[in-house]
Amino acid sequence: MSKDANDPRGRQVPRGRLSRLGQFGRLAGSVAGGMIAEGGRRLAAGERPQLRDMLLTPGNVGKVAERLSHLRGAAMKLGQMISMDAGDLLPAELSAIMARLRDSAQHMPAAQLKQVLAREWGPDWRTRVPHFDHRPIAAASIGQVHRAITWDGRELAIKVQYPGVRESIDADVDNVATLLRMSGVLPKGFEIGPLRGEAKRQLAEEADYEREGRQMARLGHLLADMPEVIVPTLDPDLTTSGVLAMTFLEGRPIESLETATQDARNAAMQTLIKVVLRELFEFGVMQTDPNFGNYRIQPRTGRLVLLDFGATRSVAPETAAGYRNLLRASLSGDRAAVRDAALAAGFLGPAVVARHAAAVDQIIDVIQGELSRPGLFDFGDRRFVDALRGRGAEIAGDSAAWHLPPTDILFVQRKISGTALLAARLKARVDIHKTVEPWIQSG
Fold first, then answer.
1. CA atoms within 13 A on the CB side of 67
2. 215 with 245: CB under 8 angstroms?
3. Helix pair 262-278, 432-442: axis angle to 10 deg
4. Is residue 88 classed as helix, strand or coil in its secondary structure?
5. Which of 289, 365, 381, 408 is catalytic?
């Protein structure tokens, strides 16, 4: 990351369309220069340089991560989403870019922050919030969070959206799609258009903080009977489309549990998995962004703090039914039943099974072999990932077999995959059979 990225004064968010386009232009020029240098080095060494190898050098990885972190908004959000979605299956170099984006958001300088607050709350906003800490306690892709105290003594967390985020979504998504094509990570012939359109719609929803406030209140109500979790309470009077006001909840990053006892790690993931199951099978509404920053833990109580509800969306009954049938088949040990359930729900397309039956069966066998082990499932044991990666690469390389699942499944799977990645990070152990049994029997 550049020196500016660590500047305590913050870094101005590029607002205008031309300004943000210029940032991408400079990135492309810088990366192209790095590619030429790397190509020359490989030729001098007697090698035949490949485009992908020249593009994904450590230097270019750093340039892409730093520039997207500076842009913030949809550009950075998409990088984070890709990181959580693909998990262990991304090329190592691209994973490095996306991992940096989860941790390297840069905050606005004070002058720009005051302009945003005056626009959202009015020029006399200090009469409403007399104590506002201009130093952010968190900075993410779409906004940054500050602590504040109201006249009546309530301590709030105030999420302030970066200026220009909503206006730049379409252009940012298009530019990131171009970067993905250049990376060579997308399968040949893959049509990214439908995903690009859905990403624009989803990001537009996430940029509406009034909508997020309603979703936060909705899930807070639905989860009120789970004392192991806690959701902030909305302050509707101070919430606008660009500012979200909520109660401030103390908590440590969920990753701090890495040094906790095995029992504490197991309990936290057991709770989170239960939340995901309730969202999918009971509530019909799910917060689909599993970024680790959206979870915190209260050390004294062990309660799981849930944050960031912009990506909350309804789950169609047929999607929940598809997952229930797939879980039933997976736990039964019946390979054919798993394949049929995956086809019926839209997880797999007919061409995949017809052209790669052996690879599909091997993937099913690996997953079932892991799930069939009695007792606790060890998420920290990732040896099976290599087997999945090899078979998955075989299928992904065949453009005629490429299948895009329904949008609803893509977002639900994003939450499930991200939850599994967190469990792997914490090396948690959970009795999967016992945890999911009530939900696959109830439908």
1. 23
2. no
3. 10
4. helix
5. 289
Strands 243-247 and 155-161: antiparallel
Given this model, what pLDDT does residue 347 score?
87
Longest Cα–Cα distance of the chain, Å, equals 72
b or e along 217-226 (b: 16 or more beta carbons within 10 Å of the residue's beta carbon)?
A: bbbbebbeee
- Are 253 and 296 in contact, with CB atoms under 8 Å apart? yes
pLDDT tens digits along 418-434? 899 899 999 999 998 88
54 to 1, 38, 374: CA distances (angstroms): 20, 6, 46
pTM value is: 0.78
Starting at the earlier edge strand, list the strands of the sheet with 229-230.
Answer: 229-230, 304-306, 295-297, 252-253
b/e code 82-96 from CB counts within 10 Å (16+ = b): bbbbbbeebeebbbb
Q: Is 124 a catalytic residue?
A: no
Residues 56/23, Cβ–Cβ less than 8 Å? no
E strands of 5-66, at which residues?
A: none
DSSP 54-76: HHT-HHHHHHHHHHHHHH-HHHH
Which of 375, 365, 381, 360 minimizes the C-alpha distance to 333? Answer: 365
User: Residue 275: which of 223, 212, 224 has the closest Cα?
Assistant: 223
Residue 13 DSSP code:
P
| Residue 70 near residue 106 (C-beta atoms within 8 A) | yes
Distance CA(272)–CA(280), nearest Å, equals 12
Would you place residue 105 in the very low, low, confident or very high pLDDT band (cuts 50, 70, 90)?
A: low
- What span, in angstroms and rounded, lies between the C-alpha atoms of 143 and 248? 16
Q: Please, which residues bridge with residue 287 across strands?
A: 312
How large is the average pLDDT for residues 354-367?
88
Q: Which helix (H) or strand (E) holds 39?
A: helix 17-44
Strands (E) located in 150-297: 155-161, 229-230, 243-247, 252-253, 285-287, 295-297
The model's pLDDT over 145-188, given as tens digits with 9 standing for 90+, comes to 999 999 899 999 999 998 888 887 787 777 767 766 665 555 55
